[in-house]
Structures are given as structure tokens and as C-alpha cells.
Amino acid sequence: MAGQRRTTWNLSWTVTAGFVGGVIAYLAGFAVIYLRKAGTLPDDGLGTIGELSGIGAMIDLPSTWQVVGWLYYAAHNVDIVMAVSGLGRSGMGTLPLTEGILWERWFALLPVVTLLTVGFSLAFLASVPDVWRGFLSGSSIALGYAPIAVAGVIVTTWNLSISYGGLSANGAIRPDPFGSVLLVGVLYPVVLGGVGGAIASVIDGRRDID
User: Fold this and answer.
1) Nearest partner of 40 among 57, 63, 64, judged by Cα
2) If we measure between CA atoms, which residue out of 204, 190, 192, 199 comes closest to residue 129?
3) Three-state SS for 172?
4) Cα→Cα distances 195→120, 138, 139, Å
5) What is the pLDDT of residues 172-187, one digit of tens each?
6) pTM score, two decimals?
7) Residue 4: partners with Cβ closer than 8 Å, 6 or more residues away
8) Kind of pairing, strands 158-164 and 89-94?
9) Domain ranges of the chain
10) Torsion-angle region of residue 165: left (phi > 0), alpha (psi -120 to 50) or beta?
């Protein structure tokens, strides 16, 4: 058979490939937004963060890669949350990132495309024998996607401390942890990667018949 590929589905290969594929899918999506926004954020984007959070320009702004991270989590429908405490009071709100000039609507399609593509590729390369194992092969990208999703919440957290006129307050902006684990770590890679893998198994099966 010309162009013969793997003919047996292997669990250990699926786990390893899933982890690597998940890491690649996450980094690819992040890189696209970074390349799109990194050049404009220092000029007219980062300043909006202070304005949107209601604390003006009295603070050091977050790093470009942190804001890109927020955009990437927002692309997975995860809220970017603010927590502020001071003067004996505390409060929490949501940063309306998707309503500002930083957001572009096509960002929401980015994780869909990357996860479908990587899930499809893994299942196709593994020559899965049926749709169910195609789904399992594709959804295995959660093994790599989920750990980075959790780590991303930690590293993109922007902690701030404000002192003004003898008063002080502390706060933080980060992707919502619960939404990040549920949506970015589980639902998106499992469902989209799995669908991509199932599609690959159907196409692969038809090629074998032909």
C-alpha cells in the first residue's frame, strides 16, 4: 500500500503525542495573538488596562505577554477578573477586555481552529480504526493543553499595590481560575480535539475503503 502509515492504534503513543500536540496547540494560539498585538500594545493598548480597571495611570502597567495571555484566555470565553482590597473593603469585578480596542472578533476562532487541526492531525497520523478512538486520540491534546492552561493563570496574574495620599490598596488581575480549568483545560481541548480526531478517523476509513 503506497504511503502506508501507522496501522494500529497505540495508547502510549496517543498519550505522548497528545501531550506534545496540546503544548503545540496552546503555544501556537498564543503566538498568533502575540504577533498580532505585540507591536501595538506598548503604544495604545496597555494604557487602556489602567483605564478599564478604574485605577488610572498611578501604577506600572502589565507586561505585553501578560495582556496577550488575557486575550488568549478571553478567546476561550474565560472572564478576566479583578480583585481589589484596601481601606477595609474589598471587591471583585470583570475586566471588559472583549469590549475594548485590544479585542478582535476573530480571536475567538483561534483556539477552535488550532485544536481542531491538532486533534485531526494526531488521529490521522495514528491511523485510528474507528470514530470513538479517533475522538480519544484527538481529545488527548488536553494532556498538554490543561497543564499550560493552569500555569498560564498563575504567570499572567498581574499583582499591583497602590499608595496615594497616605492611602493604599492591593489588587490583582488574572483569568478566572475556575473558568480557565473548566474551559481552557478541559472542555475546549477535549471537545474540539476530539471532534477533529473523529473527523480524521472517518476520512481515514474512507481512504482505506478506496
Assistant:
1) 64
2) 204
3) strand
4) 8, 7, 8
5) 899 999 999 999 999 9
6) 0.84
7) none
8) unpaired
9) 25-209
10) left
